[in-house]
Amino acid sequence: MRHGETGVGPGADAAIAGGAGVCQAHAHIFIAACRGLQIPARYVSGYLMMNDRVEQSASHAWAEAHIDHIGWVGFDISNGISPDGRYVRVATGFDYRDAAPVSGMSFGARDKNMIVSLRVEQ
Questions:
Q1: Residues 25-77: pLDDT tens digits?
Q2: Domain assignment present for 6
Q3: Which of 24, 41, 35 is nearest to 101 (CA)?
């Protein structure tokens, strides 16, 4: 998978076929592999404090797998590390739909955009 792509898509199927995807797709692929091996896994949405900036430009996603005698262990597939104190968990669920950082319904004009600003710092 190539890094540096943004947005919620492509989905896991497209990411596998195209060899590139975003953190949401990486998490879904990892979760599917775990579940295929009968390992409980869940999706986590949140934010990652980037080392080079305070203003964060996007949400982040990773996965957790339940390991016997240890418990839930986080895996940030996109960055190749286990989540640490720089990660801010917003929600967990079966998949992105269950743990989307923002969800709801919009009424009115279809050309509306939502702008979100987030600062993560110590």
A1: 889 999 999 999 999 999 999 988 877 777 767 788 999 999 999 999 999 99
A2: no
A3: 24
**83 cis-preceded (ω within 30 degrees of 0):** no
Higher pLDDT residue, 79 or 55? 79
Does residue 91 sit within a domain?
A: yes
Number of C-beta neighbours around residue 14 at 10 A: 12
Tally of domains in the chain: 1
Region of 16 on the Ramachandran plot (φ > 0 left; ψ -120 to 50 alpha; else beta): alpha
CATH code, domain with 53: 3.10.620.30
Residue 7 included in any domain: no
- Decide if pLDDT at 122 tops 90: no
Taking the CA atoms of residue 117, residue 46, residue 59 and residue 83 in that order, the dihedral angle to the nearest 10 degrees is: 120
